[in-house]
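Example record for the data management plan.
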Amino acid sequence: MDKKNGRGNLSDKVPGNLRSERMKNSPSSKSPVGKNASSNHGQNPVRNVQNNNTRTVGRREKRRNYRVGNYALYYVLIIIVIVIVFIILANTVLFKCTRINVSGNVKYTSDEIIEKSGLQIGENLLKINVTDARDNIVDSLAYIDDAEVKKSFPTNINITVTEAEKAYYISEGGVTAAISRKGKILEHCEAGDLPIVKGFEPESLETGRWLKSKTEGKTELPESIFKAADKTSLKNITEIDITDKFSIKVVVENRVILNLGSADEIESKFLVAVELINNQLGKDEYVTILLSNPEKVPVQNNSVPQQSKPVSSSSSSSVKPTEQDPEPEVDPEPEVDPEPEVDPEPEVDPEPEADPEPEVDPEPEADPEPEVDPEPEVDPEPEIPAE
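Corresponding structural encoding:
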């Protein structure tokens, strides 16, 4: 009985058989939930509803995934079409070269460098090989040691060149050539104030080519020696002799000969030489410094053969320079007063001339022998008449 309405529930007044028939004919009994509820007597109807909802959600997710997959395929196709169109435009219309910039050039004009590079205005940047352009410049122009070619999208190309400078001379077969620091043959000329490298044995001295020695191991020696000299501040090199690559000689200021031995530890050997030349040798001394072993450095005086002298110019010794404590500067020897001039010896009177020997009269000529009369002729015997 519903207290609020003052009447009871109608289902309480309907008999049981009529109530069951109404439930069979009701729409709820025809739904899957009703079927499951009637077929599965005693099961929880809430769980059945949850199972139905789960199956419905699964079908929706499948339909959603199918649509998402179709959309992704559409996107991929669109991207592919865009890329193809971009490639076609880039190779036909876009990225055409409109300007070529050249920097670092003094000896050559920009037009000369552009012409030797092979680059042209209007060429597509994507088709340009910058390595080939760089090689063309370096190989065609003797005074260009190096070049860098870069693309500046969308339409520019930048060329930066490094011009070569004369570093030393090499003579071979009556031909003297100026060589750059990197070993490029610049021109044929007379030797000037730059160092001369002897004993290199070049394969060729053709202008614009790279220097190469016939002997293995000599091609890189000049560049290595000059680099070590720059790092150690060794200046005024006038000659380098690499005739024997295991007995390299470097002449400094035309008076100091550095006997390096092999090319090993060149920087350490030059450091020792710089210390001796700047702090311990006189400006007018002509010496040979043996640097085969940098820890023991004998110094020979070139003015006195076969006589070695130490750095202090007294007697033969060995020098062991240290990097931490520099040796104290040696005070210059006091000047020795010149010896007094000796009076010249008096002239000796010449000896009197001896009287000439008397002339001897020539012996008288002997009388000629008398002529002998010829013997008289004998008369022939008379002929006897025949009987």
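Summary line stored alongside the record: The longest helix spans residues 45-92.
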